[in-house]
Design a protein that fits this description.
By secondary structure, this protein is mostly helical. 53% of the residues lie in helices and 12% in strands.
């Protein structure tokens, strides 16, 4: 049984109270076909193992043959698989071209999440850097800018604090 929903669309000439029903678009059919875990598994099998007969595919699932055939029909109508006869057998093959539509639809969302995760990474990196600087200052009394020396005394940045005995000589 096909559970692909019809899409309700407003025609430009109709009022808000009267809408017409239309057939789903090709993109809607693709997404509806991919909604089923059984159909996604069929696509995975065809991708990994190449063209397969109905019997070979059906043997991977515990369902009645008519139910499985319905899943193949939905995939075929969405353009995700093709069927060809080989004698008495029907062989099914993956048709990857419609999946380009799925990828194209998902691309903006992938970019959105990539940007969000990148911003989070930078925020966390800045937070770790600030926490590390604060910890070093608390434990040593030395700031990361080199403003104080050992014991918190200022020094000239030469690496050694001034020796008071040197001034007397």
């Amino acid at each position: 049984m096909d559970v692909t929903p019809a899409v309700r669309r407003q025609s430009p000439s109709s009022s808000a109270s009267s809408a017409s029903w239309s057939a789903p678009s090709a993109e809607d059919e693709i997404f509806a076909a991919l909604a089923s875990p059984v159909r996604r598994e069929v696509l995975r099998l065809l991708r990994e193992r190449g063209p397969r007969s109905v019997q070979e595919l059906a043997s991977c699932f515990s369902m009645a043959r008519p139910s499985f055939s319905e899943h193949l029909r939905v995939l075929r109508e969405a353009g995700l698989v093709s069927e060809r006869r080989d004698g008495r057998r029907r062989l099914y093959s993956l048709e990857p071209v419609p999946l380009v539509r799925v990828r194209d639809w998902l691309d903006p969302y992938e970019r959105f999440w990539r940007d969000k995760l990148s911003a989070l990474r930078h925020l966390l990196d800045d937070s770790v850097t600030a926490d590390t600087e604060a910890t070093v200052t608390e434990t040593t009394g030395i700031t990361t800018t080199g403003e104080t020396g050992a014991g918190g005394r200022p020094h000239d940045g030469g690496g050694q604090p001034e020796d008071p005995d040197e001034e007397r000589q």
